[in-house]
Design goal:
Rossmann fold, alpha/beta, elongated, single chain, 12 strands, 48% helix, six-stranded parallel β-sheet, 2 domains
């Protein structure tokens, strides 16, 4: 056999080995779970799309579980069932850290990698958190409120009480608004995961006048902003500021038609996409100690936090986000 033929066969053998090795890394038998709450919201449908897209690229199996409303106990049940299935990894958004922490720790003790997404449980044994820097997101929104109110007025917030990401957003707003003593936070409304509560409460607040008049309505979740904007629009109160969170179609349409001033955009698709890829990497290249606290290890193979980014969306750049949303919907249908 000539040297050329030998070289060609060697290269072919190397190519076959490389291809076989790449194919061997992934398998549809590898199952990754995304555990979430409020799955009916467009925000979670977008995050799920990112998770599923990464699974399709890697040719692994993605399963998405959890309640369609905000129900920490139902999310706990979904987590327990996922742990019992012994998957390759779990990505979880933590609606209630106190309720979910024991089961997160149980999963890690059982050798299942857990990464938190969107809402964290920092006291748990999860490897790390992928999501928004919610404190900075709140500060970004707070600066917008100051700008639009001119440094004085009454503000009301709509939130989910006790959920870590919402609490951090609220703190960020408070940090910034504290620099303007003539801006007063009148109320922080717990909508308990039900946007109808925001609608009803906004109607009551719109009736206040004089020194008690509410000048700004700020939603810290993805669902209440549209409901509040509806109330303000019906009252034809063009002097009120409505600020939302996230960039679902209805919110972007509200900015376009002027019923919503602005929103803070997160990147849920990116969270889901990176989340599955991160779990896959941990599964195939596991650390010597899964339960170790890597946040205090200067030579850790993992970060403490992956910030997927935020931005302010208003009438000046809303068309960019509308075009991106349309392109994303088309891509996800393919």
């Amino acid at each position: 056999m000539s040297a050329i033929k030998k070289a060609a066969l060697a290269m072919l053998a190397l190519a076959v080995a490389f291809t076989s090795g790449c194919g061997a890394r992934h398998s549809s038998k590898e199952v990754y779970y995304l555990i979430a709450s409020n799955r009916s919201l467009p925000y979670w449908q977008t995050l799920t799309a990112g998770f599923n897209r990464a699974a399709a690229i890697y040719k692994v199996t993605a399963r998405v579980e959890g309640p369609n409303n905000r129900d920490p106990q139902a999310e706990l049940t979904a987590m327990q069932q996922a742990v019992a299935a012994k998957p390759a990894g779990i990505l979880i958004s933590v609606a209630d850290p106190a309720a979910l922490l024991p089961e997160i720790n149980a999963a890690v003790s059982a050798g299942i990698p857990v990464i938190t997404v969107d809402s964290d449980a920092p006291a748990s044994r999860r490897l790390y958190f992928i999501g928004t820097n919610n404190l900075e997101a709140g500060r970004l929104g707070g600066r917008r409120v100051i700008e639009k109110l001119g440094g004085h007025g009454n503000v009301v917030f709509f939130t989910f009480a006790g959920q870590a990401n919402m609490e951090e957003r609220l703190k960020g707003f408070k940090d910034v608004l504290a620099t303007r003593p003539d801006i007063h936070i009148v109320d922080v409304v717990d909508i308990q995961g039900d946007a109808r509560i925001a609608f009803d409460k906004a109607q009551q607040l719109m009736a206040l006048s004089g020194p008690r008049k509410i000048d700004a309505f700020v939603s810290l979740d993805s669902s209440s902003g549209k409901q509040v904007a509806n109330v303000v629009q019906r009252a034809q109160a063009t002097d009120r500021l409505v600020m939302a969170f996230d960039v679902d179609q209805a919110t972007l349409d509200g900015i376009k038609n002027g019923s919503i001033d602005s929103t803070v955009a997160q990147k849920p698709f990116t969270m889901g996409f990176l989340g599955l890829k991160a779990l896959d990497d941990v599964f195939h290249y596991p650390p010597a100690q899964l339960a170790k606290d890597y946040s205090v290890d200067s030579f850790a193979p993992y970060p403490v936090f992956v910030d997927t980014g935020t931005s302010l969306v208003d009438k000046n750049n809303v068309n960019i986000y509308l075009a991106s949303a349309a392109a994303g919907m088309t891509q996800n249908k393919q």
